[in-house]
């Protein structure tokens, strides 16, 4: 286990490094420096600015300086607003974390309930209904769903108020963000439960007269949950990137909105900082879910 | 060919393993009838296709997709408007032509029709610049489908080559190649796609000026480059896994023992066995590519401005969502139909072709 964990942590560190390298060097490859605006500053001013942002040093040195700054929590300064990117990230991340956290939670709970219902009522009407629902929601991009929800419930029916700072209503954004992962977890739970139901130890438990509900909860569901754990990593990645679109649609000022406005404003340090921050978060979550998966399932060998 | 009759075959000698012909009887006509084949023998492909067409959902998906393909081929030839053309009435600019509801004409157009002019109806109305919305949706669908198809082909080719090299050679080559795959696989793909699209748009854009690629648009090219750089890893893993597991099967050993050449083993035993899995995963790659493209277009990184894509159409329609909800609904429904159909088709293909699911 220890060897496996070390290997995974090493891989995670390598990928974080690769992400930083890709982010840094690709942004560096963009023609025109950050101060090459239509009205170029005086050469003296330019020199001072370049010195301030270490742009006068060779590229490799800049890269390592950038990395060491990141590990000290310094992501640089936004070209547009002139604020520290790290403060922007930490301010807006709480909103995104709330949105993402709730939708992950709801996706997990709903997915497990729907998935086990579908597996238990296989080929009857609840199962068919759930299959219909999952097929539909897998084929619907979150931005389509988000705009439709906003249109129907906030603008036409006026049931749910649109998001604003005073009235932070997360219902619609959470629904829009959690529908796809709910469908995915439902499918996952259903197929793994059906798989487990066919195992010998379930038959043994039944033959020994264990009550049906106990067989399902204690014997089947516990083992069926294992594949769901592996999905936690991708799920986090999905809700973090999905929240970019959802936040833009519902005009929620979270990290996703900051990222998208960074793209529209061509605010490269902002794009770079946010990408690296989100990527590190995703890599860590994938690492945790992978390690959990191995720790929970004793059948998996560690080589 | 020589004919053998029972008396020509030499008689069995004592203790020899030779067949004793006397103990065999000629088959009666009744017995011969039982030998008649009930079904003509089918190939793997034909059998799979037969199964595929028995699934109502898969047939639905095929019908929807073929209708869409037909529309995007035929519609631009029938509808007289271009996707970026601001419609003029008898050569004059018409300000009343903006944001028309479906199947209506502006006042100037109505006048022209009354005067005997022939004006093609605006099936989905017009947009805020006075362009025909139907043709824009058609071109948007075209872009989405093209991106999906080409991106999957790129992924297929790179993944197939990389995966089969790693799987076939094994050893050190495999180890190094798969470590690279592991690293790329662990990168968060959507974020990297966004980052690379931002950069490639700027980097390639400069160098493309005046070449044939410029007409396709830099964003489209950068989208393909991104797919070629990042999305092949899943396919490479799949192909390598398939080849590794098939390579060590008994039937390959048997074929080798019977003296089959390497080429014959690859062609007759390994490729047909992994083809079905590869085809299925390519079919499922298409909707995910379309998803990614519409996502990128939606946040403003998709195809170049006058060229529409379903994602960017939906994004622009958000502005006038309350007044013109159909402008949002039409591209939204189109994306959903495409993605849903490809998903259903992929599921159908998996049920029909995956050897592990056959019984």
Structure description:
The complex is a heterodimer of chains A (303) and B (359). Chain A is mainly α and 303 residues long. Chain A has a domain of 211 residues: Orthogonal Bundle (MetI-like fold), CATH 1.10.3720. In chain A, 75% of the residues lie in helices and 0% in strands. Chain A is flat. Chain B has 359 residues and is mainly alpha-helical. Chain B has two domains: 45 residues, no CATH class; 221 residues, MetI-like (MetI-like fold), CATH 1.10.3720. In chain B, 65% of the residues lie in helices and 1% in strands. Chain B has twelve helices and two strands, in the order αααββααααααααα. In chain B, strands 1-2 form a two-stranded antiparallel sheet. In chain B, a hairpin with a 2-residue loop joins strand 1 and strand 2. Chain B is elongated and about 110 Å long.
In the predicted model, the low-confidence regions of chain A spanning at least 5 consecutive residues are none
Instruction: Please name the fourth-level CATH homologous superfamily of the domain at 86-296 in chain A.
Output: MetI-like
What is the CA-based Rg of chain A, rounded? 24 Å
Q: Strand fraction band of chain B?
A: under 5%
Count of helix runs of chain A:
13
Largest sheet of chain A: none
Task: Give the CATH superfamily of the largest domain in chain B.
Answer: MetI-like
Largest sheet of chain B: 2 strands, antiparallel
Assign the CATH architecture of the domain at 86-296 in chain A: Orthogonal Bundle
| Shape call of chain B | elongated
State mean pLDDT of chain B (0 to 100 scale).
Answer: 80
Q: What is the H/E string of chain B?
A: HHHEEHHHHHHHHH
At CATH level 3, the topology of the domain at 86-296 in chain A is: MetI-like fold
How much of the residues of chain A is beta strand, in percent?
A: under 5%
Shape of chain A: flat
């Amino acid at each position: 286990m220890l060897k496996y964990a070390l290997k995974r942590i090493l891989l995670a560190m390598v990928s974080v490094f690769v992400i930083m390298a890709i982010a840094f060097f690709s942004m560096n490859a963009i023609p025109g420096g950050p101060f090459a605006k239509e009205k170029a500053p005086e050469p003296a001013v330019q020199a001072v600015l370049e010195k301030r942002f270490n742009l006068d040093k060779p590229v490799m040195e800049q890269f390592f300086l950038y990395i060491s700054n990141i590990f000290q929590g310094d992501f640089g300064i936004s070209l547009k607003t002139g604020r520290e990117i790290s403060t922007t990230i930490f301010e807006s991340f709480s909103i995104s974390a709330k949105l993402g956290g709730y939708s992950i939670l709801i996706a997990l709970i709903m997915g497990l309930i729907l998935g086990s219902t579908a597996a238990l009522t296989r080929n009857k009407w609840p199962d068919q209904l759930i299959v219909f629902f999952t097929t539909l929601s897998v084929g619907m991009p979150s931005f389509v769903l988000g705009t439709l929800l906003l249109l129907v419930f906030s603008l036409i029916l006026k049931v749910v108020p649109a998001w604003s700072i005073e009235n932070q209503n997360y219902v619609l954004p959470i629904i829009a963000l959690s529908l796809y992962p709910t469908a995915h977890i439902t499918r996952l739970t259903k197929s793994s439960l059906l798989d487990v139901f066919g195992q010998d130890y379930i038959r043994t438990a039944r033959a020994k007269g264990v009550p049906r509900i106990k067989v399902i909860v204690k014997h089947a569901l516990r083992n069926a949950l294992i594949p769901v754990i592996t999905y936690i990593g991708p799920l986090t990645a999905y809700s973090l990137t999905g929240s970019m679109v959802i936040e833009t649609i519902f005009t929620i000022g979270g990290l996703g909105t900051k990222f998208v406005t960074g793209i529209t404003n061509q605010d490269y340090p902002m794009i770079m900082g946010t990408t690296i921050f989100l990527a590190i978060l995703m890599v860590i979550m994938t690492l945790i879910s992978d390690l959990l998966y191995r720790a929970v399932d004793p059948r998996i060998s560690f080589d | 060919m020589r004919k053998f009759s029972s008396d020509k075959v030499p008689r069995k000698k004592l203790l020899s393993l030779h067949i004793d012909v006397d103990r065999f009887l000629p088959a009666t006509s009744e017995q011969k009838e039982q030998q008649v084949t009930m079904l003509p023998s089918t190939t793997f492909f034909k059998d799979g296709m037969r199964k595929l067409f028995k699934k109502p959902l898969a047939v639905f998906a095929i019908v929807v997709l073929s209708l869409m393909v037909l529309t995007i081929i035929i519609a631009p030839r029938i509808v007289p408007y271009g996707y970026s053309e601001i419609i003029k009435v008898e050569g004059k600019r018409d300000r009343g032509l903006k944001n028309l509801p479906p199947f209506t004409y502006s006042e100037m157009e109505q006048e022209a029709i009354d005067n005997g002019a022939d004006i093609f109806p605006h099936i989905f109305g017009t947009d805020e610049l006075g362009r025909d919305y139907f043709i824009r949706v058609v071109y948007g669908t075209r872009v989405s489908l093209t991106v999906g198809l080409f991106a999957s082909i790129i992924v297929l080719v790179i993944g197939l080559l990389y995966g089969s090299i790693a799987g076939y050679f094994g050893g050190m080559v495999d180890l190094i190649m798969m470590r690279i795959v592991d690293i790329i696989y662990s990168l968060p793909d959507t974020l990297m796609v966004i980052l690379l699209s931002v950069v490639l748009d700027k980097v390639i854009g400069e160098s493309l000026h005046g070449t044939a690629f410029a007409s396709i648009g830099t964003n489209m090219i950068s989208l393909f480059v991104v797919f070629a750089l990042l999305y092949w890893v899943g396919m490479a893993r799949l192909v390598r896994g398939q080849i590794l597991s098939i390579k060590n099967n008994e039937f390959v050993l048997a074929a080798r023992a019977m003296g089959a050449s390497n080429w014959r083993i690859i062609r007759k035993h390994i490729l047909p066995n992994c083809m079905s899995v590869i085809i299925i995963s390519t079919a499922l790659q298409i909707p995910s590519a379309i998803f990614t493209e519409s996502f990128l277009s939606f946040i403003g990184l998709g195809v170049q401005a006058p060229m529409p894509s379903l994602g960017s159409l939906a994004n622009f329609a958000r502005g006038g969502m309350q007044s013109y909800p159909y402008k949002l609904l039409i591209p939204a429904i189109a994306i959903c139909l495409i993605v849903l159909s490809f998903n259903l088709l992929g599921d159908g293909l998996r049920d029909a072709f995956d050897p592990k699911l056959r019984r």
